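Tokens for chain A. Residues wanted.
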């Protein structure tokens, strides 16, 4: 997928058409023997080496109670708070994002608001401090920001979540099922039935309940986006239950894409590699793995949530109208797809 650091022209410039139209006007005026109108020259961007762009391991050992807070991580993840620039690609859209307080969900929420969308975010109640930061950023863009805390492992809450999002935003056009539970266990013998059930309900049951409740409100042109993982293709031995849910996510996305495609509703997924989020410091990785997190990738570091923001935007935007049943990978050069 194209990166927003393209040296000559970013995707947002191309969509906006600024540089292209300016160049076209100069050529047209010259061809007709007229002096070209004075235009603001497109500013070039310096090349940025992705290897050195963000922090690399070793990282300090750190641990938080599940589900963790981005605001207490060291270093703090970058969700695009100061760097993401929008251009109206999602103007007038209404999005519901689960896990919107941190990680990729937070990056998507910030990007969506800056692209012109109103956004409802769901999060676990203990994540309120992170959620309030996101809501402030959404509202700073002049967009509606809606907070709906609650436990996605409860079917009735998932139904209530959709109802409140529809009422608060005046409808829904985008569903991002991003919230996930990840707890590392060295052996299947260490996973209790309660643990297994909690992971399945958070990662698989919740999207089922949410999409089922939201579908009657989605019109042709709407988009559903799941968060899969490289774990769906190359599972780690200590993520036995989590990896299964990500393989299932990939599968339900492809199945629903075929089912809903004729209705004009697209279904796609993002498959991250190692991304620096609270999942890792709240039981998702051992301390040994955390210290070296992301170091095994060709880029030698973990990804930051903001580096996936444009993928979530692209999959929701109307100009990606032929992307359906796709899984977009972003793993620093390792993993699949």
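Reply:
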């Amino acid at each position: 997928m194209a990166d927003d650091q393209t040296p000559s022209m970013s995707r947002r410039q191309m969509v906006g058409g600024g540089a292209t139209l300016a160049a076209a006007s100069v050529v047209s005026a010259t061809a007709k023997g007229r002096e070209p109108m004075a235009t603001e020259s497109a500013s070039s961007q310096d090349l940025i080496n992705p290897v050195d762009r963000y922090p690399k391991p070793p990282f300090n050992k750190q641990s938080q109670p599940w589900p963790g807070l981005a605001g207490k991580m060291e270093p703090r993840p970058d969700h695009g708070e100061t760097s993401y620039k929008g251009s109206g690609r999602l103007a007038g859209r209404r999005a519901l994002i689960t896990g919107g307080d941190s990680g990729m969900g937070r990056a998507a929420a910030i990007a969506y608001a800056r692209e012109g969308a109103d956004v409802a975010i769901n999060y676990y109640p203990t994540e309120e401090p992170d959620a309030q930061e996101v809501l402030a950023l959404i509202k700073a863009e002049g967009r509606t920001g809606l907070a709906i805390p609650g436990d996605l492992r409860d079917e009735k809450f998932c139904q209530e979540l959709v109802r409140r999002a529809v009422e608060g935003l005046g409808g829904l056009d985008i569903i991002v099922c991003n919230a996930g539970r990840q707890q590392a266990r060295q052996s299947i013998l260490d996973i209790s039935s309660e643990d297994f059930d909690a992971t399945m309900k958070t990662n698989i049951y919740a999207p089922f309940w949410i999409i089922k409740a939201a579908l009657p409100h989605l019109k042709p042109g709407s988009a559903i986006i799941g968060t899969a993982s490289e774990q769906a293709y190359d599972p780690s031995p200590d993520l036995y239950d989590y990896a299964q849910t990500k393989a299932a996510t990939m599968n339900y996305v492809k199945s629903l894409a075929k089912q809903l495609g004729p209705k004009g509703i697209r279904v796609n997924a993002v498959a991250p590699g190692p991304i620096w989020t609270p999942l890792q410091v709240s039981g998702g990785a051992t301390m040994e793995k955390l210290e070296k997190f992301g170091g095994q990738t060709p880029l030698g570091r973990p990804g930051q949530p903001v580096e996936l923001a444009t993928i979530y935007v692209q999959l929701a935007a109307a100009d990606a109208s032929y992307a359906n049943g796709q899984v977009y990978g972003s793993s620093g050069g390792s993993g699949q797809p």
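The radius of gyration is 21 Å. The beta strands are 94-98, 118-123, 145-149, 174-177, 223-227, 266-272, 327-330.
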